[in-house]
Amino acid sequence: MTGLLGHTDNAIEIDAPIDFVWANTNDVRTWPTLFTEYASVDVLDEQPGGVTFRLTMHPDEQGRVWSWVSHRTWDRDTWTARARRVETGPFEFMNITWTYEELAPDRTRMRWTQDFHMRPDAPVDTAGMTERINRNTLVQQKVIRETLERRRQAVIGFPDVPSNTRRGGDLRTLVSPATVGSTSGFCGAVRLAPGEGVSEHYHPYSEEYLYLVSGELRVDLDGRPVTVRPDHALLVPRNVRHRLTNVGAGTALVVFQLSPLAPRPELGHVDTEPGPNEHLAPVPVVTG
Hints:
A seven-stranded antiparallel beta sheet has the order 1-7-6-5-4-3-2. 15% of the residues lie in helices and 43% in strands. The chain contains four helices and 17 strands. The two termini are 46 Å apart. The radius of gyration is 24 Å and the shape is elongated. The relative contact order is 0.14. It folds into two domains: 6-151, Alpha-D-Glucose-1,6-Bisphosphate, Chain A, domain 4 (2-Layer Sandwich), CATH 3.30.530; 158-271, Jelly Rolls, CATH 2.60.120.10. By secondary structure, it is mostly beta strands.
């Protein structure tokens, strides 16, 4: 290898929490919706903390389609991701480091540094590729910023998120750290058929606010029954055991909100009795 090594260093600030930026930019399967240059991603191998995948670009001006295999690893403790080309193509090597820095609860700096060297027979030399990467990086980082900031303002519907039936009912977490990058709480709704309920549990870190849209609801608070009728709301304090039961003749629709967030999602909900469908696989966490 002869000549100078190529090196680029570019950063952008995004109005979104670091967890949200991290999760969205490290899910390589969604990169075609995040980058304008990628047509498809095929995951070839996936392990905890790493993924090998094929990236395929949109055709260039000459109609050529470029594709290569990369390997990516990540370390959330240091907010760092690293990638290298397995199929190097015109590069002798290409290594990329992504770092993330929390500037504020709703603001993140995302930085890409790339180190590389071109093959002697490559159609562009290292200096030319450095200029090209710098130019394209600015475009793609701006697209990512606009996309993530727009996702934070998305309207989320029942069909947009997975159904959680393990504790009873059809429960959907709609606005959450995972879906829109909320930082102080989350909300959703649960539909309960007549006689159906949500099994008893409590929240060590969060207050829960319930609002009944339709139906008739009984909420047992530490064993004490409370009736909630449509257009009425109820506070469930921290550490209070509660169970929801539809005692009406029709479907009940209950809106819930919890705040503040638990330190980690798995700490936010403590079951005190088995749910009717607890044998089902857990629904992917959408609350943090």
